[in-house]
Design a protein that fits this description.
It is a single chain. By secondary structure, the chain is mainly α. It has a domain of 90 residues: Alpha Horseshoe (Serine Threonine Protein Phosphatase 5, Tetratricopeptide repeat), CATH 1.25.40.10. It is 78% helix and 0% strand. 37% of the residues are buried.
Amino acid sequence: MAEVTVDKVPQKVRDAFNKGFTAFERGNIDYAIDLLFSCVVAEPSFLQARKYLHAAEIQRLKKKGINGLTHHLAMLSGIPLYIGVLLGMSKSPAKALLNAEKLMKIDPLQLQFIQAYAQAAEAAGLPEAAVQKLETAREHYAQNVSVLVALGDAYQKMGKTKDARDCFEKLCELKPNDPAYIRLLKNAMALDSMQTDGWVEVAEKGGSFREIVKDAKEAVLLEQKDKAFKSDKDMDALIADLEEKIKKEPRNVNYYRALSRYYCQKYMFPEAISVMEKAKAVSTGDPEIDNQLSSIRVQEFDFGINRLKEAGDTVAANARTMERDQFVFDDLQERVKRYPNDFRLRYELGVILFNNDYFNEAIQQFQLAQRNPKHRIRALYYLGLCFEKKEQYDMAVEQLEMANADSPLMDDLKKDILYALGSTVEKSGDRAKALVYYKQIYQADISYRDVATKIEQLYKQ
């Protein structure tokens, strides 16, 4: 299905689009969404209307506020439509895509909705719409593996081999030792070379990957990366290649990051630290570089501690462990000062403060950390624990109940939350309510901590 541009759509649709676009620019978002949605219904191939429709939907969502609970509630309310999209793709792709568009009105940044939308768009013969939506998703989930895989695959299907290759290169930067993603990159490189250099004849004759890929040296390096076990020779070749790339592109911090990881794998921690210090000078104020630098220093501590333990020097190992713990605490405090809006760091600092019985200070960090959707539930859980330690049981239960409401699956975290709820209300004297919480764990996992004993004791009482 070919894309229809604004000058090719019927006058009625064009008028609606112009009004919708004007409303979007003026901030009249709900009206803009209604008009632009009508354009998409009338002309499914009108991709420009889809683009601004999704932009308006995202703007409306941001005004309401985005967090993990938002996406979870959207999933619950959109389940009937979502199932309809998945089941309808084979029977009626056009209807499935329309339903997927309705899902976007509920939550345009819900990842499962986005993936269903992309699949429906491809099924309806609109791969451009799938790419358009996945590109938007990548802007908001730059390091999400599933988004990168789906976008790279969509690019390849459209023949955009260069874009696909760029996508899979990013994927391999995030997951440098994953053989599945390295294979995706290898295939993308081969397809890109075939398209750009006309090596179709080599491929048709059964040419190997090395023959197809333009740079044979790069093929060798990818094969070395793909190995589950890398010899010293493999590692040295990968390191030498990255050192050469840094000389050619000294401002590409991804090369520094990759090089430091290989140094760490060879236990060359001073060299890894030196590389990341250089990266820090190239890209100042980058929290990811600081995170990796801190991680390397902790790895260096752990390596030294294990060596001392293996040598039987327990005293020195314990002293080094205390030194490591002090470094982690001081380093986290310093990074929180540098990046006050990095709520992941605040969560990590809160955990350390909690474990050292600084409950008031931990509460402050967790209250801020819950703004991060990824850490919201755990931050609420720890807030509950902090209040419980301070014997403020009513506030502890409030925080733990919010964490419980945000945890739909009976995983380890859910069990921890329910156990904390049971323990807290039990301490406050409400044994009947404690039994309700403990029973939920007991029915799912009888071996969890001492929940079986708790149940037996409470039944006797």
